[in-house]
Amino acid sequence: MRVLALLDGTLADPDAPLIRVDDLGLVRGDGVFETILVVDGEPRELGPHLDRLARSAAMLDLPEPDRAAFERVVGLVLDTWAGDSEMALKLVYTRGVEGGDGTPTGFALGMGISPKVMAQRAEGIAAVTLDRGVEPGLADRAPWLLLGAKSLSYAVNMAALREAERRGAAEVVFTTSSGSVLEGPTSTLILARGRRLTTPPSELGILPGTTQAALFRAAAREGWTTEVAPIDVADLYSADGVLLVSSVRKITRVHTLDGKALPDSADLHAELAALYESEY
Ligand code: PLP
Fold first, then answer.
1. What CATH code is assigned to 2-113?
2. How far apart are CA 232 and CA 249, in angstroms?
3. Long-range contact set of residues 147-150: C-beta below 8 Å, sequence gap at least 24
4. How far apart are CA 253 and CA 239, in angstroms?
5. Residue 256 dihedral angles phi and psi, to the nearest 5°
6. Is any atom of ligand 1 closer than 6 Å to the C-beta of 207?
7. pLDDT digit string (tens) for 22-42?
């Protein structure tokens, strides 16, 4: 089941051709997107997702997304959805057609959640560390690299996931060349030690995660310490738990890193997953 709504407020057939061949989102990855989890008709963290869409668009010098129009198409997809209780809702916003009048292309696409993601939520994942080739300070020094923007240019992230598969793993922990932890290709990393949760700073040029923020809110309410601080790869091996979190995968535990088993974090994962759910 898929539902597609265009930014002008009309429904469209997701199986029919729609995007022009000269759309800059298609030919250059020149655009931004968000993926939102919807549970029982309720989008999670819709406000923070729309904030981040606007922030990413500003980083790419795109026209400011029409928030009310995006809210309307989200509503339209939700009202039309007749699939499972959970939906992944993708918002896409591109620079529009090359040489056109500058009107952006925008749409919202509701999709089911893949069985693979469902299994990873329950069973955890093996991950490998891969060098992202960035250093602290680069995001500020070279804003044209768009580090920390959720742009449509995810080919590098997808290539990293294929490299993980070649190495017998399902996920990636990106690192700086000097061994500082960044994020996953489509997820935020959180380290748990005692009753403390740590995530790397977005100033490193990574995406500020809405799921991480929600979990930190819930954890802080229950007396956990939450902090944003640099993490070294070596810290991952001595942690009580290493989590990769994102809207659709929710809270997922890493059980194996670079082929080495991490300490069993099944109970910790269950506690944190329940904490996250308590936000909704
Ligand atoms: N980091 C990157 C690079 C991502 O693409 C994503 C989401 O897809 C995340 C982190 C997690 O963000 P969120 O929790 O808001 O889904």
1. 3.30.470.10
2. 24
3. 147/205, 147/206, 148/59, 148/202, 148/205, 148/206, 148/207, 148/208, 149/32, 149/55, 149/56, 149/59, 149/60, 149/207, 150/32, 150/33, 150/34, 150/52, 150/53, 150/56, 150/207
4. 12
5. -140, 135
6. yes
7. 999 999 999 999 999 999 999
Spans of all domains in the chain: 2-113, 118-277
Q: Check if the beta carbon of residue 91 is closer than 8 Å to that of residue 53.
A: yes
Supply the CATH classification number for the domain 118-277.
Answer: 3.20.10.10
Atom of ligand 1 nearest to the CA of 183: 1
Give how far the C-alpha of residue 113 lies from the chain's centroid of Cα atoms, to the nearest Å. 14
Tokens of 214: 């929600």
183 Cβ below 6 A of ligand 1? yes
Output the CA 266–ligand 1 centroid distance in Å: 23
Q: What ipTM is given for this predicted complex?
A: 0.99
- Nearest atom in ligand 1 to the alpha carbon of residue 157 is 3
Please give the distance, rounded to the nearest whole angstrom, from the Cα atom of residue 246 to the centre of ligand 1: 5
Compute φ and ψ for 169, nearest 5 degrees. -125, 170
Taking only the tens place, the pLDDT of each residue in 124-142 is 999 999 999 999 899 999 9
Tokens standing for 181?
Answer: 């932890």
For 37, list phi and psi in degrees, rounded to 5. Answer: -90, 135
pTM score of the predicted model = 0.97
